[in-house]
Design brief:
The chain is α/β, with parallel strands linked by helices. The strands form three sheets. The protein has a six-stranded parallel β-sheet, with helices on both faces. Strands 2-1-3-4-5 form a five-stranded parallel β-sheet, with helices on both faces. Strand 11 and strand 12 form a beta hairpin.
Length: 408
């Protein structure tokens, strides 16, 4: 039977964690408990600190000399190995972590162990800050506890009760079962400036009886895209928008990590890629634009985001990076390059129009592909948002013609 797994530092947060255990039991959802505390103690956990340390290859008494960070990291590794065993035995119906920054750090390492579709819930003061490291593209739920998670008082008790009800409700709502892997699902990536291309792709996919799953290429969305592909939750991928790699290479706001563009090749998933939105680096408010970007063409997307034009040299480097990350793919892989523009801003007369930059990207891909590479590079005399270009992307991952209605 799948149950909630509760991981926390019972050595320093015993009182609130035990309150949470009591609340979950009262909701007929008794948790499996994992003690990630460095100092141990008898807290009645299913997996006590000694067992967690042992799973990480240490005796508990060996941890203090490692320093605080080293000890916490070791306990997190041990907890992840125990959690992996529980997942493999299908005993995990939800993951819950509660505490301060250590709980958040542990959650960021434990959540990726749990498949998409199984709830992952964090209540920590850290969720009031930058949360991308906590989300990492997973399907997480986060609650801000208002007070520090310390001791016992009426506000904290109320928040712990709320956390228990959320976790129990998610468990009973069917969250104990991972998302299936339907054969007809296709992952796509999108920005607002590539929205028309994705809309056309969705139409063509629907004509073929395929279900589009669209991810916003905002850093976290790219991680989710890669996670879905690597977990086998889609049958193919149409990576329309790879601007997260541009941000990673050139200091933008929304990088998605160095494994972006790698999952499909590694997992043997058919893919078609386009250089959508590589004409822009996403930066902060216009008033805060770094000096080195001020003389470039730029567009204020809104009060918080300024888009700065990439250079031919940057696009060439991006093309080489694409080729390197695609490597030797395990399934059909195409890079389709729309020579008339890569975004709604890169159109004739538009603020970012520069055909030389598109060609530089294509040359970068060509120069980075090894001899005899199975990756197909195709220059197309279209804009990325043209229907014909979208049709080519869909045909690259599903060459079967669209279904025709049967005569009545």
């Amino acid at each position: 039977m799948s149950r909630i797994v509760l991981a926390g530092t019972f050595d320093t947060k015993a009182e609130p964690l035990e309150l949470l255990v009591e609340e979950l039991r009262s909701l007929d959802a008794p948790p499996i408990t994992i003690d990630t505390g460095v100092f141990g103690g008898d807290h009645g956990c299913d997996h006590p600190a000694e067992a967690v340390a042992e799973a990480a290859g240490h005796a508990l008494e060996e941890l203090p000399p490692l320093g605080r960070a080293g000890a916490v990291s070791a306990m997190t590794r041990g907890a992840a190995r125990i959690l992996r065993q529980l997942v493999d035995r299908r005993e995990v119906g939800a993951l819950v972590c509660m505490g301060g920054s250590n709980a958040a750090a542990a959650f960021s390492a434990l959540a990726p162990v749990v498949p998409i579709g199984i709830p992952k819930v964090l209540m920590a003061t850290s969720v009031a800050g930058e949360t991308r490291a906590l989300v990492q593209g997973a399907d997480v739920t986060m609650l801000y506890p208002v007070l520090d998670i310390e001791g016992d008082n009426r506000i904290l008790r109320s928040m712990i009760g709320r956390l228990a009800h959320v976790a129990a409700a998610l468990l009973r709502a069917g969250g104990a079962h991972p998302v299936g892997a339907p054969e007809n699902s296709v992952a796509l990536t999108m920005y607002g400036v590539t929205n028309p291309c994705v809309a056309h792709c969705r139409e063509f996919l629907a004509d073929r009886g395929l279900e589009p799953l669209v991810f916003h290429a905002n850093g976290t969305g790219g991680r989710s895209f890669e996670s879905f592909v690597s977990q086998g939750l889609v049958s193919s991928a149409i990576d329309v928008t790879i601007s997260e790699v541009t941000d990673e290479l050139f200091g933008g706001l929304w990088p998605a990590g160095s494994d972006r563009l790698t999952a499909a090749s590694r997992s043997g998933v058919p893919q078609a890629m386009a250089p959508g939105a590589i004409d822009m680096i996403c930066l902060g408010p216009l008033a805060d634009l770094p000096e080195r970007f001020r003389n470039r063409p730029h567009v204020a997307h809104n009060d918080l985001v300024t888009l700065v034009r990439t250079t031919p040299e940057e696009n060439y480097r991006l093309g080489r990076t694409v080729a390197e990350r695609l490597g030797i793919p395990g399934a059909a892989t195409s890079v389709l390059v729309p020579m008339k523009g890569v975004s709604q801003l890169d159109v004739e007369g538009g603020p970012f129009h520069d055909p030389g930059c598109v060609e530089a990207f294509a040359e970068g891909v060509e120069s980075g592909l090894p001899p005899g590479s199975p990756v197909s590079l195709v220059r197309m005399d279209h804009h990325i948002n043209d229907r014909e270009f979208a049709e080519a992307l869909v045909a690259a991952v599903d060459p079967v013609p669209a279904r025709c209605p049967t005569a009545g």
